[in-house]
Design brief:
9% strand; Rossmann fold; 186 residues
């Protein structure tokens, strides 16, 4: 099973995070992140939405992520971070990928991962649309199942599959994937 490190920027939009984690839960790939990625997620959400209770976010969202994927946290990445040659702000993500023996880093900031270390380690960098599109090519029923599960979990407010797809389409990188998914779920 491929090992995928999720960058903070793909964990922030709730619908995108939900899709990526639903696919991991369905066995499309093995998900990884570091404590630093989770801390960055916490900072991003609480800075952009000051009315969100930080403890509630940590317990509800990050706690649920930890519970669902207890083996996802990569440790020891700090030992190789100085060897990374990509954008300094994202070296911790690259170091987590190298340490985890990841196949792919999923990010919306592909340019931040330019350098030789990742390609030399056979680690690709992909957008969420590229990852989900590839899964859709190989395992279309898993992606459809993930979207249906997302809709089934939505309670406040409830959402239909079509509304989940509308939410996903707000991420520009997923527009093409969502168009393909609409054909499959109808």
């Amino acid at each position: 099973m491929p090992v995928v490190v999720l960058d903070t920027c793909v964990l922030f939009p709730p619908s995108l995070r939900d899709l990526l984690l639903a696919l991991a839960a369905l066995g499309a790939y093995s998900v990884r992140w570091s404590e630093e990625i989770l801390a960055e997620l916490h900072r991003t959400v609480t800075e952009r939405y000051p009315d969100i209770d930080p403890k509630q976010f940590d317990n509800a969202t990050i706690g649920a992520m930890r519970s669902a994927f207890p083996d996802a946290v990569v440790t020891g990445w700090e030992e190789v971070v100085d060897q990374m040659d990509n954008d300094p702000a994202d070296r911790h993500v690259a170091a987590a990928a190298v340490t985890a023996g990841a196949d792919t880093i999923v990010t919306l900031n592909v340019g931040d991962f330019a350098g030789r270390v990742l390609p030399d380690g056979h680690i690709t960098v992909a957008t969420p649309g590229q990852l989900v599109g590839a899964i859709l090519d190989d395992l279309p029923e898993r992606v459809v199942d993930a979207v249906r599960q997302m809709a089934a979990r939505k309670r406040n407010p409830p959402m239909t599959v079509d509304e989940v797809l509308d939410a996903l389409a707000r991420t520009p990188d997923l527009v093409g994937v969502v168009a393909r998914l609409r054909e499959l779920v109808e």
